[in-house]
Every structure is written in structure tokens, then in C-alpha cells.
Write a structure and sequence with these properties.
Rossmann fold; 25% strand; binds S-adenosyl-L-homocysteine; alpha/beta
Length: 352
């Protein structure tokens, strides 16, 4: 039975489900989930990500993390962790670039937080020459200094959506519209956790990501207790506003209810909620990805790499630089937020 049929049968039996339950089933259902059953990345897949666009992305992030490690006295051993590592490309590029920093590679204990069995396999193959530990949950990361990166991870976590109705809220639910899946609204409810959203008028949508804060709190506990840094890169803004649930299949947007389990589903990240979950840490200013990469020196790096390229390879390389940094491409839509302990220098490329 297809995932669509299963979801319809479930709704017919037990009633409409939250957007977060719908997302969780579509992304991580053991048999039909989008991430559990396939490699969604790259030109042949459904979408592409910064590390897949150019090695420069991971190289600069590797050097930024290595600088933070040096700034904190080069603790050894330490956990080098990535959340949702996709094909393992970012971690491979981080290790190659940061490997030039004496002692970094030898001290790093690489941990990958990954839910998908098929992507775990790809990551192990890509990183075959080093020892990697896969864990399902950030709570399984060691109690040790933690230097962590998460690129396009938090956007894949299920969100709930609430629509303002006067003084109360109604949850947006996935139900049946005849024989098809359709959106509807649940009963009115008071939501104390949305009391601060006086900025949202009638009919306005607010998204909450219930899994994000506990994940951030686990990370923050390790960094506050043992040192380290966390670098979160994703699309979103300081405060969630509006319906940002989107489906992408074969590089094209589509209706999120059209093909459950066959399209990537994401929502914008509410960076304010991440910062609030890590009150013991210092967070950077939310910085556009293009600004961050330029400050880290992507242009000189791009020029150096360009010197060895000609023809189509050179054109692809120039396009990749533009794609990562230009405001009309990923440069402004994607944001960077970093966290460090109190009294510790911020990561290069970012201000407090
Ligand atoms: N960071 C990679 C891949 C982004 S796609 C890149 O930039 O290319 C999202 C990644 O998060 C995938 O590896 C997916 O399997 C993983 N993922 C999604 N939900 C997860 C969860 N709840 N726990 C762990 N990993 C998850």
C-alpha cells in the first residue's frame, strides 16, 4: 500500500493529523519515508545543497571550526559532529581543509547524527578512510568538547502550524477532502507559548518546531559544560512568520499534499527559537550565508581554484561561487547562526 493510501486510511479511522505528524510520516516512515528510502540530493535527485554545489563551502566551514578549536585551546580529544550529513560531502570537505591545522584531525572523534539507513551507508562510504560513529539522536553524543555543524538539518524537522483566530489559535490539520488529502483547521485553543506573537494578525500562520528546542538544548549542554561551538546554516529568519511548508520534487516546487513520501518537505527555520533554547550560550548575529562566506575568503579561494580550470569546469565553478553567495541565489535566503560558550571568541566571519 502506498503512503498516500495509508495516510488516508489512518485519517478516515482516527481523524485529521497535525502537519508535524504528516511531515514525520512523509520524511521518515520506515518503508515509505522520503529520507529512509532514497538519496534525494544532487542533479539526478530532488534538490541540491551548498556542500554539493562546491567544495569551497565545506572547506571554509572546516577552517572556521578549526579556528574556533584553536581559540579554545585545541582540546583533545573532541567531538566533531554533523546533524543530517546527507551524502557526507560537507564532513569530507571539513576534514580535508581542517586537516591542515596541526592536531585537529588526530583529536577529532567524528559523530554523524543521521536517521536514514540509506544515507548512513552513503556517509560511511564517503568517509571510509576515517572512523565515524553514527548516532540517531544528539542525546547520544559524548559528554566532551563539541564542535558541530548542521546544514539544512533543522528545516527537515516536522513543524506544527497555527492560525490566529482572534484571541485563540486553530491548528492547521491534514484531513480528507473527498478522496484526496486536504488542509483544514482544528478547534480553537489558547496557546501560552504563542503569547508573544502579538505581531500576528487574524488569519496569520505561526509555525512551531517541537523537536528543535530539545535538540538545541542537548548541544548547548555539551558546549556550556565542555567547550565547543555550533554552526547552524539554513533558510529561515529570526522569527517564523507565515506558512513556509514547501515540497520540492525533481527540483520543482509542488503541493505538499500531492505526493506523500516522494517529495522533500521542509519549513523555514525559526532561529529565534534555537537561540532561546540555548540560554547558557552566546549566539552570533544571524548572518546571511553570502556575507559569512565572503568574510571567510570565498572569493580568493574561488580565484585560486579557478586558476586550475578551463572551459565547462571553469564556468561551473564560477556559477557555484555565485550560487552560494549572491543575494538572488542562496546568499541571502540562507542564514548562519553560531553558538559558543560564555567568554569565548565567536567563530570567524560572524559578530556577536
Ligand atoms: N546536510 C546535508 C543534507 C541535508 S538533507 C547537505 O547539506 O547536503 C537533510 C538531512 O537530515 C538528511 O541527511 C536526512 O536524512 C537528515 N535527517 C532528517 N531528519 C532527521 C532526523 N529527525 N534525525 C536525524 N537526521 C535527520
Amino acid at each position: 500500500m502506498s503512503l498516500a493510501s495509508r495516510l488516508k486510511a489512518r485519517i478516515a479511522q482516527t481523524g485529521p493529523m497535525s502537519v508535524s505528524d504528516y511531515m514525520a510520516e512523509c520524511l521518515l516512515h520506515p518503508e515509505h519515508g522520503y529520507y529512509t528510502t532514497r538519496d534525494p540530493l544532487g542533479a539526478a535527485g530532488d534538490f541540491t545543497t551548498a556542500p554539493e554545489i562546491s567544495q569551497m563551502f565545506g572547506e571554509l566551514i572546516g577552517l572556521a571550526l578549526a579556528q574556533a578549536w584553536l581559540d579554545q585551546g585545541a582540546p583533545a580529544p573532541f567531538t566533531l559532529a554533523e546533524l543530517g550529513p546527507g551524502r557526507g560531502t560537507l564532513m569530507a570537505d571539513i576534514l580535508r581543509a581542517a586537516g591542515a591545522v596541526p592536531g585537529f584531525g588526530a583529536a577529532a572523534r567524528v559523530h554523524l547524527v543521521e536517521a536514514s539507513p540509506s544515507l548512513r551507508q552513503q556517509q560511511a562510504a564517503r568517509l571510509a578512510d576515517i572512523t565515524v560513529t553514527h548516532v540517531a539522536d544528539v542525546g547520544d553524543l559524548p559528554q566532551a568538547p563539541l564542535f558541530l555543524v548542521a546544514n539544512e538539518f533543522f528545516d527537515a524537522l516536522p513543524i506544527r502550524q497555527f492560525v490566529r483566530d482572534g484571541a485563540v489559535w486553530r491548528e492547521r490539520l491534514v484531513g480528507l477532502d473527498g478522496a484526496r488529502l486536504g488542509f483544514g483547521l482544528g478547534p480553537p485553543q489558547a496557546l501560552p507559548e504563542l503569547a508573544h506573537r502579538s505581531d500576528v494578525g487574524d488569519g496569520g500562520v505561526v509555525e512551531l518546531c517541537p523537536a528543535a528546542a530539545p535538540i538545541m538544548a542537548e548541544i548547548a549542554g555539551r558546549i556550556a559544560g565542555h567547550g565547543g561551538a555550533a554552526l547552524v546554516i539554513d533558510y529561515g529568519d529570526w522569527r517564523s512568520l507565515g506558512d513556509t511548508l514547501q515540497a520540492v520534487r525533481r527540483h520543482q516546487p509542488e503541493d505538499p499534499l500531492a505526493n506523500p513520501g516522494e517529495a522533500d518537505l521542509t519549513a523555514h527555520v525559526d532561529f529565534e527559537a534555537l537561540a532561546q533554547a540555548a540560554p547558557g550560550l552566546v549566539c552570533s548575529r544571524l548572518t546571511p550565508q553570502g556575507v559569512f562566506l565572503e568574510r571567510l575568503g570565498i572569493t580568493p579561494r574561488a580565484q585560486k581554484l579557478a586558476a586550475g580550470l578551463t572551459g565547462a569546469a571553469l564556468e561551473t565553478h564560477i556559477a557555484a561561487h555565485r550560487r552560494l553567495t549572491h543575494p538572488d541565489e542562496m546568499g541571502t535566503l540562507f542564514k548562519v547562526l553560531a553558538f559558543v560558550g560564555q567568554g569565548v571568541p565567536m567563530l570567524p566571519g560572524l559578530d556577536r
